[in-house]
Amino acid sequence: MTGLEAWLVVGLGLGVIVVRRRSVATGLVTVQALVLAGLALHRAGTSSDVVVALALAARALGLGALFLFAVARSREQQPVRAHLAPALRAGIAVVLILVLTGLVPAFGLTSPVAGRAVLALVGTGLTCVATRRATLFQVLGIVLVENGLALAALMSPHASSLVIELGVTLDLTLIAVVAALFHLRIFSELGAGDSGALRGLRD
Amino acid sequence: MTSIQVLAAATVAAPIVTAVLAALVPARWVARTAVAGAVPTAVLALSLAGLAVADAAHPVTGRWIVVDAAGGLLLAVIAVTGLTSVLLSPAWLRGSSGSLVAGRRRDRVYYAVLLVFWAVLLAVPLAGNLGAAWLLVEATTAASAVLVGFSGRRHALEAGWKYLILTSLGLGVALLGIAILAAGLPGGAGGLAWQQLATFGSGRPAAVSAYLLLLTGLAAKIGWAPVHNWLPDAHSEAPPPVSALLSGALLPAVLLIAWRSERALAPVIGLHPAQRVLIGFGLASLAVAVPFLWRPMPFKRLLAYSSLEHMGVIALGVGFGTPLALAGVAVHIAGHAAAKALGFHCATPLLAHEPRAASHPVTGIGRTAPALGAAIGVSLGALSGLPPSPLFVSEVLILAGGFSSGRSWAAAAAAVLLALGFLGLAHAAIETVAGKAHGRDGARLPGLRPVAALAGVSVIFLLGLAAVAPWLAGTGFVAALERGVP
């Protein structure tokens, strides 16, 4: 993996942290996943690798379509504002990425750059879930984490396991479908896809 | 395929076939189909569990499937808990209204998702490698989140959302740990079989990082403190039969994956460091749970915090790792599942008898509904560890195992926390059953008859378990638990 490719996927992830509109964030995550699918196809050496790459691409397009459908069915009067300013959210993400890359030793991917990119995507996803109130952004945070893990599988020095790769894709799709169902129901119940309004259960 | 592998496949397939049938049959047959399919599912799973435990010295291991002593124990627990959940679901469905899905499809969707959730849960202890185990645990999230939010009420949506997001994120972190392991194994992601994890070749620091990420991620699903935030909400807002399955079966099933990972990676990262992480989670869970057990709580929320406490106790037992402690773990998993499932099933008639119980602590149930009060008393008494509860015996075994393993400070701290937890929960049991009673309508108690029957069976089982528990430590079964997957 080249430095440019790593910066591209991480940059797209950081974009999700700062953008305001859900549709734009969905586009960024979809492009990121398609870049990963392209990388997978480029590196494919066996028919299994091709199947994995095509599954990644199908997942990217399928989830993108699902999230855009959810956005269309839950038009907000005004975007759900996060508690933190975009620059602060980006700063938190960068700090978390630096902490993760500092704490986790190199773990044997085909390039050290790929290892750092994986940790950066995981850190970006965690930050997205923790700092964004809009329900759809929280789901996108999980997809960012999973994209990072897809990159780890892609850059593994060993052959991938088709069953596990396809299983992960299927699991994430299921989670995303259930999350979209919840998002729509929360929107119809509260009038906004705002996780900040879900604070009735406290001890 | 060997006969055991065929039996394992049939055990997982039976509830899936039943789910498909429940989705297709005419509406009036849905509940009967689910019950009719649940009984053979439980029989198959218990047969497989019986074979695994009876021949604990010779586990069946392969790349994708493992049938061993620990898996057998969990299979039995999941089978019985799942069966009671299906059998007691009609009473809850009759007494509730509203759902995530349209009214006329409500029962059909509920049973189909419940049976799929049960099927995936039954597969978790049979997973022969870490990758497959992760896939199955993640699959339980999708199904169980739908069930947690099934009533469609605002609080249920909140609980379902938190559960979905926090556990998915946790499992993402666990998958990062698995990715690190896969990169350092000769077979990559295909080499994640339990027996092969010990061949990890990227060095101890990377293995320690992977183990910490894996356990932290799984902790979010098990509900170990400090990553337990979803647990009280999900358990209190889910339909009672689902809460029973979540607490009695899902949490220990995921804990089994953490346990297997600890055993499998111990040769690389060292047994004591691996165990210390589990002991840390155990003590943290106890310390967080105990103050809540002292507070007046809505009934199901009280049970949820009790789950946090008991998952902490099991983590301690696994972390101590001696035969005494592991005997305690086995008894604790079985006893907790029986007592906790009974407690959650009591919530169905309780919420009809006293609707305020959904959001307020209730008192004096035994005065206005004696049979229900007795069932609640059995559940809370057993969960508090009141002798002759098997959970009293198991906690003594685990603490004794802790002292005998040389971890006196951890065992002493656990003893103090357990004593405080006992006082809190025993006080709650007395107040709930025999406290001051308000005027209540005792006529409408849906599901009381099956709950009373379940209470009777549970008493026999719990007393039997308490009787055999002290003799378990020297058996081949516990020796097999100590060995892990060979």
Helix/strand order of chain B, N-terminal first: HHEEHHHHHHHHHHHHHHHH
| Biggest β-sheet description of chain B | 2 strands, antiparallel
Give a count of the beta strands of chain A, DSSP E runs of length 2 or more: 0
Low-confidence stretches of chain A: none
> Helical proportion of chain A?
over 70%
Percent strand of chain A: under 5%
Helix count, DSSP H or I runs of 4 or more residues of chain B: 18
Query: What percentage of the residues of chain B does DSSP assign to strands (E)?
Result: under 5%
Q: Distance between the terminal alpha carbons of chain B, to the nearest Å? A: 20 Å
Largest interface: A-B, 53 and 56 residues
Provide the spatial order of strands within the biggest beta sheet of chain B: 1-2
Give the overall silhouette of chain A. globular
Shape of chain B: globular
Number of strands of chain B: 2
Estimated helix fraction of chain B:
over 70%
Output the radius of gyration of chain A: 17 Å
Mean pLDDT rating of chain B: 94
Mean pLDDT of chain A: 92
Largest sheet features of chain A: none
How does the helix and strand content of chain A classify structurally? Answer: mainly alpha
Brief write-up:
The complex is a heterodimer of chains A (203) and B (486). With 203 residues, chain A is an all-alpha fold.
Topology at a glance:
The complex is a heterodimer of chains A (about 200) and B (about 475).
Chain A: H1 3-18, H2 22-43, H3 47-73, H4 86-103, H5 112-131, H6 135-154, H7 162-190
Chain B: H1 3-24, H2 30-54, E1 60-61, E2 66-67, H3 69-95, H4 106-123, H5 130-148, H6 154-184, H7 204-222, H8 230-237, H9 240-269, H10 271-293, H11 299-320, H12 323-353, H13 365-368, H14 370-384, H15 390-404, H16 408-434, H17 448-468, H18 476-483
Antiparallel strand pairs in B: 1-2
